[in-house]
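Instructor's aside before we start: the two examples that follow are unrelated to each other. I chose them only because their records fit on one page, so don't look for a connection. First example below.
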Amino acid sequence: MPLQRPNRPFGVTLLAVLHILQMILYFIIGVALIAVGALLPRFLLRLPRFVGGIVGLIGGVLVIIALLYLLLAYGLWTGRAWAWTISLVIAGLAIVFSLIALVVRGGVGGLITLVLNGVVVYYLMRPNVKAFFGKAPTPPSATMLTPSQLNPQSISASGAPKFCVNCGAPVTTDVRFCAHCGAKLV
């Protein structure tokens, strides 16, 4: 019987919805810039034509970014491993840029961005979130366990050690939830 994927954690749902909101914002701004870039040379005759082209190009890039955010939101919603990886990379890069902004400019905005992206990285590394994206460690074999991990309560009726299907931690037979990740045990 194949392992069943855990339910989508609430934080992952929240991240997907936030990416959809970002997608909408980038899309609206991108389309507006494309329109302004097309109309700018006609209304402001003193501007060179390439200025409108540059504004339109920036708008096009924003529309592409909006579509990528939509793809990322889909990946988060459906628990794709690549979405977890990309979200982790984006949050990590945002932390680096926030640190640079704090050093160069200071201010509260960089600090807020730093803290929020730090929370995202921490959240994405939680065992239950990693398990949702298929990133949970495989259960260790009985030969890899230390004697303290292998106690009489962690042995099933068949004599094999029991492990959480969500995070792979050893569990006792008398508990309903994993003490490591909080997943409901079957």
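Example two begins here.
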Amino acid sequence: MEHKSQALLHRRGFIQRLAKHIGVSVLLIIFSLGVGVAGYHFLADFTWIDSFLNASMILGGMGEVGELTSNGAKIFAAFYALFAGIVFIALGGILIAPIFHRMLHILHVESEGKHKKLDT
């Protein structure tokens, strides 16, 4: 990240930064989906496909599909739902951060330019 006193990052550098953030987001989604699939498969005794479906639905905010019969599976599902909500918020922050930073940097550069013109 460039300091506020540095020049605005060129467009290519910004796109590379944005691509890194998207990459981190994809890795976080894959990790979260893997945790959910494994949990549903081993704790709820769902098939791999049903586990994938349930984990995807929870991460997508739609809710569960299969019926949970054991207490362990229900506890896992509750914590996984909380985890999925936190992941959703984190993903929003990860994806918006470079855009928000660039906007603030542009506003600061414009503000600095106006102050320098007034001072001279």
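The chain has a mean pLDDT of 87.
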